[in-house]
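notes to self, project folder thing:

trying the whole complex as one job this time. last attempt i did each chain seperately and stitching them together was a nightmare. two parts in total, labels are on each line so i dont mix them up again. if this works i'll redo the older ones the same way
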Amino acid sequence: MHPILQSWRRFGIWMAAWIPLGAILVLVAHLSGRLTVLESLAVMTPAIVVMAFVCLSPFYVCRSLPLRSAPREKILINHLTAALILTGGVMLVGRFAASLLTPSFERLDQRFGSAVPVLAVVVLMIYIVAVALHYAALELEASRRAEIYAREAQLKALKAQVNPHFLFNSLNSISALTTIDAGQAREMCVRLADFLRTSLRLGERVTVSFAEEMALMKMYLDVEQVRFGGRLRLKQEIAPACSDCDVPALLIQPLVENAVKHGIAMMAEGGEIVLSGQRDHDWLRFSISNPYDPEAPSTGRNGLGLRNIRDRLESRYGASARMDIKVEERLYSVMLTLPMRKR
Amino acid sequence: MSIRVIMADDEELARRVLREHLNTQPDIEIVAECSNGFEAVKAVNELRPDLVFLDVQMPKLDGFEVIELIDSDAAVVFVTAYDQYAMRAFDAAAVDYLLKPYSADRFRASLERVRTRLREAEPVRSVPKDLKLASRAPGDHVERIVVKDGPKVHVIPAGKLDYAEAQDDYVALRSEGRAWLKQQTISSLESALDPRRFIRLHRSYLVNVERIARIDANTKDTWLAVLTDGTKVPVSRGGYNRFREIVGGE
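result (full assembly):
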């Protein structure tokens, strides 16, 4: 339902707005049709009430034809057609009222007829203004929602910072190492601490440099390396030109966690994670790929992290950043394209 | 008499810490170490251990699928970093559920439970196999079915299962032109699969919705479902009603 019709208060305000608008229409009919003000008021009142409702109808058309995505000509044709039909309708209501009142006012229908052309133009214009207002309101609503979304996404990202299972598994590795190789156990503690400290520090910021994000990723993989040993292999092709690009903090981190959790950890023989970062004019292109076993048991809750990333990209860059996911037979890749913004 | 143990965990370090704890016990003999689900099923079925330590998330088969496929009465202890599987583990008749990392005390307590269980001499599998297969949270459906194929394991993704037919204590699973027999009742299979994708068209038939080409009237109270590959499956009145409910017929 139309938001204005959802509460009596809003409906009252809307109808009140039609008092001055109605006055304009009455005046136009009076001036252009040789009607007295009283006659004009009598003829126009039903038409004005009808118009008050008709001008709510663009809501549905505007919603189904968003300015950003719908084709221009389609928007134009749809609204113009609706405007013409509805103007015709309103004029018919006026005509009908005039013919009903003719017995009381002499030759009222004829005199009203002469007012029709000018009146029709004014009605048409009011309708077009209503369309514009609806678009403005929808746009406002969308930007408000994007803001809420961004805040939620940020909150989720913060919560997702350190996956508890990663911690538990790392602690279990340390517990194994204490008797096997005390030196390596200590080294693992240091790596884990480095990762935790850095991820907390970066998580406090909105954006970080690409180099910082990559460094964090490396710390994470250093820890996982101890757990997976030779099963986890890494190949990096990061161009130095990307280093100072501004990226949302911890945007990429969940992608590496996915690559390990759903890829490497589910392969008996392990595999190679390939990271690549390139600068292409004003764009930063990052990709991460990992082999996966299409027949592996389900690891659950996939896709939540990816949606989170997509939301964050959209709230920050709008349509100018993208994430593409390519699933080949045994290779899973995620590609990010972000506008290159220097810090 | 010593307790023969098999452990399955894909992480070398996790196996080492387990081995170290086990080595402190004089009555324990480790007969195999496995690094994925396939190996675990094979080793357990061949070596018939008394006790199995199972990780949940492993390559090839997860810990629950391993339990489905082993036909021994071995006691099972799950060892995992995830606490959300505990309920399911006990439903599947696990003796204990160890959370990584665990202490030496906690480990000894777990072994004590195992010893008590083994001394009681009654099979650990007092839980019917069917209950075990159905052990999962409501709304949580299996995406694949694991079947034993001789010494090997065959995995049928849910989307590739055409239909299942009850045959005494077994179900015959039809997939990609082949039939696989699994010891399971059709009802427990039905409850494991997503009810929006699989309909019980008949007491003995569970059919993949996507494979149904049409349903023809047969006699007054029975129908015949014709599948996309031409197979005909009998449909009961109840099955017909369930079909209409899911497909949203008139």
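what i see at first glance: Chain A touches chain B at residues 165, 168-169, 171-177, 179-180, 226-229, 265-268, 293, 295-299 (CB under 8 Å).
need to look closer tmrw
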